[in-house]
């Protein structure tokens, strides 16, 4: 059986109504970061009802498990479809539907977090059910993992891939139904700027740390770091490593006594392209701080790396990219899939080095706004692509 026939058979076996109904059902269950448990329990129960094997609520954090299951087709490699359970808090201003209604209105399913990324989870489950019903001669295992804590420390995906090694993976983050090769990373550097405290009436005995920090903020905002990159990486992500003083805190809390502060902290939010090192970014921060010191000789600061998340970039010629391209072509005859990258941070920051992973999901920006919705067309398309991908990956 040729690849075209394999993909077509998988697509024709998918129950698109099941995909839509699951999208509506998961949209009705709140799962704001820290409260993923009820959605995980629902998904695990659904996997059992649909005939998945090795279904488990994998422990991650108290009352915040992963929901996982598998469809074994004999010995062979493991192919994983995955995404996260957690969402941000609900936005104000919903008018067409309630945030947790799952209402279907004019061909759109409404629900808070449906694009990021409850809809993709539902499509992945329906796709794997269709894969099993297709009766194709497959080998290996098709696995599904709905993980918790994506918007925290990504502990759900870390726990899953540590316990369940895989060969190929599709992460269902929203990519406007195009093929996403990767995303930028994130470094948080905290710049502690020091002065000398005094009562406000003794202003001239003090060195105001907030003032000195302002000099650093000006220089950091002016930064235009363009590190050396491979040309194809620069073409995908752009030349600049974005940096911004994203949080500033100094002085005493509101409501208490006041004084001239002796410390102010600037959190520098850095979004490097894959391959840009901490040392490269730190050198640019040091350059900006040296410029601030030239403006005022009293400037003193320490720099601490507060957090780091790796970028992700899969090779354009890798097997997982070739397979998802074939799957998109099969789901959309006559359509040549585009390749892109994103600026947001996926769970691939944590598990990307462990398994060859491409990102593909329905929905796109803006996300986490009022009346968030996903079209039936996008739901149908994503389900077909996931089914075709898994069929192609397990038929080789």
Structure notes:
- With 396 residues, the protein is an alpha/beta fold.
- The strands form 4 sheets. The chain has a 6-stranded mixed beta sheet, with helices on both faces. It has a 4-stranded antiparallel beta sheet with strand order 10-11-9-12, with helices on one face. A 3-stranded antiparallel beta sheet has the order 4-5-16.
- The chain contains 11 helices and 16 strands.
- Helix content is 35%, strand content 24%.
Q: Outline, from the CA principal axes? A: elongated
Q: How does the major sheet shape up?
A: 6 strands, mixed
Q: What percent strand? A: 15-25%
Task: Write the H/E string, N to C.
Answer: HHHEEEEEHEHEEEHHEEHEEHEHEEH
How is the secondary structure organized here?
Blueprint: H1 3-12, H2 16-27, H3 37-49, E1 53-61, E2 64-72, E3 78-84, E4 104-105, E5 108-110, H4 114-133, E6 141-147, H5 155-163, E7 168-171, E8 179-183, E9 186-194, H6 209-221, H7 231-237, E10 242-250, E11 263-271, H8 278-295, E12 300-309, E13 312-313, H9 319-331, E14 339-342, H10 348-351, E15 356-359, E16 373-375, H11 376-393
Parallel strand pairs: 3-6, 3-7, 7-15, 8-14
Antiparallel strand pairs: 1-2, 2-6, 4-5, 5-16, 8-13, 9-11, 9-12, 10-11
């Amino acid at each position: 059986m040729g690849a075209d026939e394999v993909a077509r058979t998988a697509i024709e076996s998918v129950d698109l109504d099941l995909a839509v109904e699951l999208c509506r059902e998961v949209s009705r269950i709140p799962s704001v970061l820290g409260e993923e448990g009820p959605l995980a329990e629902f998904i695990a129960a659904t996997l059992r009802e649909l005939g998945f094997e090795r279904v488990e609520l994998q422990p991650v954090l108290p009352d915040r498990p992963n929901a996982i299951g598998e469809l074994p087709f004999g010995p062979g490699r493991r192919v994983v479809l995955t995404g996260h359970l957690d969402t941000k808090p609900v936005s104000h201003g919903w008018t067409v539907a309630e945030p947790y209604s799952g209402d279907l209105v004019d061909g759109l399913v409404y629900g808070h977090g449906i694009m990021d990324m409850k809809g993709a989870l539902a499509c992945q489950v329906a796709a794997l059910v269709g894969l099993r019903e297709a009766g194709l001669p497959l080998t290996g295992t098709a696995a599904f993992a709905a993980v918790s804590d994506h918007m925290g420390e990504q502990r759900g995906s870390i726990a899953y891939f540590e316990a369940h090694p895989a060969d190929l993976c599709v992460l269902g983050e929203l990519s406007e139904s195009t093929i996403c090769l990767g995303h930028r990373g994130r470094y948080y550097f905290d710049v502690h700027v020091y002065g000398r405290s005094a009562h406000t009436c003794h202003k001239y005995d003090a060195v105001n740390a907030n003032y000195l920090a302002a000099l650093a903020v000006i220089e950091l905002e002016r930064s235009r770091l363009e590190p050396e990159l491979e040309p194809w990486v620069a073409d995908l992500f752009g030349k600049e490593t974005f940096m911004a003083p994203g949080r500033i805190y100094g002085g005493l809390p509101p409501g208490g006594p006041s004084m001239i502060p002796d410390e102010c902290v600037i959190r520098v939010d850095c979004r490097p392209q894959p391959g840009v090192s901490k040392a490269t970014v730190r050198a640019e921060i040091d350059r900006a701080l040296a410029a601030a010191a030239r403006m005022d000789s009293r400037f003193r600061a320490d720099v601490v790396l507060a957090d780091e998340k790796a970028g992700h970039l899969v090779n354009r010629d890798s097997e997982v990219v070739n397979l998802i391209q074939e799957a998109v072509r099969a789901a959309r005859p006559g359509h040549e899939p585009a390749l892109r990258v994103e600026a947001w941070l996926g769970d691939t920051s944590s598990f990307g080095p462990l398994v060859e992973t491409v990102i593909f999901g329905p929905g796109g920006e803006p996300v986490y706004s009022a009346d968030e919705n996903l079209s039936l067309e996008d739901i149908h398309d994503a389900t077909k692509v996931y089914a075709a991908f898994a069929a192609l990956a397990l038929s080789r």
